[in-house]
Amino acid sequence: MFDHITPDDLASLLRNGFRARHDPTFNLLTRHLLGDCPDCGRRVWDAGHSKGACMYDYGATFAAAERALADFLAQGVPPLDEPEDLLAELAALPTPDQLCLVANDHRFAHPVVVQRFLDESHANRYGCPERMLHQAQLARLAAEGCTATEAGSGRRLADLLAQSWRQFGNSLRIAGRLREAETALATALRFREQGTGDPKLRASLLEQIASLRIFERRFDEADGLNEEAGLIYRELGDRSALAGTMVQRAIAAIYAGQAEGAVRLLNRAIPWIDAEHDPYLLLAACHNLVRCYIDLERPEEALSIYTEVRDLYRDIRDPLIALRAAWQEGKILRDLGHPRAAEAELLQARQGFAERGLFYDAAVVSLDLVEVQILLGAVEEAELTIETTVPIFRALQVDRELLALLIWLRSLVRHKERALKLIAVLRYRLAQSRDRTAVPFERHGST
């Protein structure tokens, strides 16, 4: 949390002034000063009356700071039509017509309506990626039609555009359209640079880009971006949001094969999470902690945590999260020596992922399922699972060599040790695919 201004902070503010407006520390510092802190006000007075103070143009600096804060707090004009009426009118149309109407009808071009689209998109981040993307497209189109008058100021409008492009980029990421997501998030960054300098907007953008870097297997970059976002949340005093960046860092560590490091991050993050405000984040942290213990071959600890959070899985009542719970439970049962029960859970998860078009997840669950069936000695079931997994691999557009390895696995199911080794190779090769459509289980997306 930001406390008081140091001499170095003050010197930087007075020297750099408005040029530093997009530095999150600058924004926190100026708001603190405008809050009439007596101790810091005394420091400003001393700086203004000390020897050599003429080197600072602090009058212009604070005038600029006041303008920046005014931009941040500016209120636009109210919408001409009730948002509920507009959304009801929109809901009666087919999806393509909705996009056309919002792009061409200025009644939808208002920040209140944009925010409704953003909220709806965010609400669908776990259960329906297609609807998440559609609502993000509506938000972007509506924001692009807004004017500075409606937004409150030109910089407020830039913030609104940054928010809509950020959500659009994140939705594209979850849909597996990574190159388009990269372009959209870069656009969001450009708009943010033209905006009010809101530090929370910058932090959330850094988190979204970090999530994309995890998809691209650029784990060090993802870690650095999340760490930078975490520093902003720390300065803002938002411990739950800071915990969110730690969960994201743990996810990057998991995918990088560093489960021990991920355990340390998650155990630090969980006590800081506001479970009432963000139950999804708490569940994501616990879910990934269970995965760490599975990867570390410590199934008893995995089971202990999974048992503690089972009610949270049930309370959230999201079908996709329920599938991930079934997958998690299947792996725990497998490692505890209950292959038949594990098979039932994995079958359920596999079918659900395939029905939702989450082919990467369906492919990985299929390999887990084949492994369990081989352990059971259920040769015919394993052969059938492999046969029905071939179309899933093709849907992922994997290379020919990886597809050939899967087909070869079918001929090895009677040779337990060789088959299990090949499954391990397939898992590794599948994880190396840069264009996969898996989504880590975090608060902005789904796993």
Describe the structure in your own words.
By secondary structure, the chain is mostly helical. The chain has three domains: 7-73, no CATH class; 83-276, Alpha Horseshoe (Serine Threonine Protein Phosphatase 5, Tetratricopeptide repeat), CATH 1.25.40.10; 338-431, no CATH class. 74% of the residues lie in helices and 0% in strands. The protein has 23 helices and no strands. The chain has helices at 7-16, 24-34, 38-49, 58-73, 83-91, 95-104, 111-123, 129-145, 148-151, 154-174, 178-193, 199-215, 219-236, 239-255, 259-269, 279-295, 299-316, 319-335, 339-355, 359-376, 379-395, 400-410, 416-431. Residues 17-21 and 435-439 have low confidence and may be disordered.
Can you tag this structure with a few keywords?
447 residues, mainly alpha, Serine Threonine Protein Phosphatase 5, Tetratricopeptide repeat, 23 helices, 0% strand
